[in-house]
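Repro:
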Amino acid sequence: MRPLPILHIVPKLSTWGGVGNQLLLLLKNYARDEFLPIVCSLRDKGVVGEEIEDLGIEVICLNRDFKRGFYWTVVKELRTLMKQRNIQIVRTHEYRANLHGRLAALLAKVPCIVGSVHNVYNARDKKLNRRILNRYLGIFTDKVVAVSEEVKKEIVRYDSVPENKVAVIYNGVDRKRFVDIDAQSIRSEFHIPKSTPIIGTVGRFFPQKGQKYLLEAVAKVRNKFPHIAVFVIGDGSLKEELQDHTKKLNIEQNIIFTGVRRDIPALLSAMDIFIFPSLWEGFGNALVEAMAAGKPIIATDIPSVREILDSGKSGIVVPPANSEAIARSLDLLLSDRALAENLGNAARERALSSFTIDSTVRGYSSLYRSILEQKRIS
């Protein structure tokens, strides 16, 4: 039996983030004797697309500059692509790709159409026009996949998609990336003594990620832990604002803005504590990676985090936007290494039992098979 062509459609591949990282992991782990993946970016190829090509997977770019919400020409291009490549499965990611890609798949009579929602809904997602479009698209979509139960609730609530048409498949981590890592190499790179505690966070510099509350917490504990080092990993529109905030708090000597890094497991291995200060999340890929690395976790008490941390059993949860609570938790874990170690072990066990890329791939593969079997396509 020939492998089934599956087309992943994404808005862009220009920057690293949760969707790009997870897509790359998924593509690496598909059973190639069963599925033949192809990736289409509505915009450019970018760094993510280049790394996907390095896997021997075709990346097609439409190079569109979206200045308005909908382009019929994009739908026609996608439909032509699907017909030419005899695509049997279409999986779309995020709103713009969900809109154009699912409509094109309907017109191309693709047997298996799966939409994906990666985040909780913001104000734009809740607008009436989007809700109507998503409700209509949901009629002919075989399944909408949510990355958490919280995201599923929002799809059902705002888009009126029947609950039995929404599946939850958690994102996963590759456990092989978190073994046999030399943490000392990171300390050497940044000239951090072995005795200096390192804490850190990973995420785009965007209001959602809440890094400013971590910086404020560090300022509160600095008198007790003057030599603490803090990795702030990522980049984005708030970079200058966060750097200015660091100066105002007089913690410049403690904060290390690393920029975007591809060696996240190595950076995590060097950390003593991981902070996840997000104000809202669909899932929390960086959080699960830190858990897989066995790090004690301090995270905000938001619904998706409660799912991941099993209602706080695998880490400390604090109220969102509360630097004082983060500071108290930091003080506790830096002062009680035994507690920190126990929490780290619990976090690792939780991540590797519930959030591996193997289980994610099995979930999607099983979903595709069941849809195609119902339609007698094999």
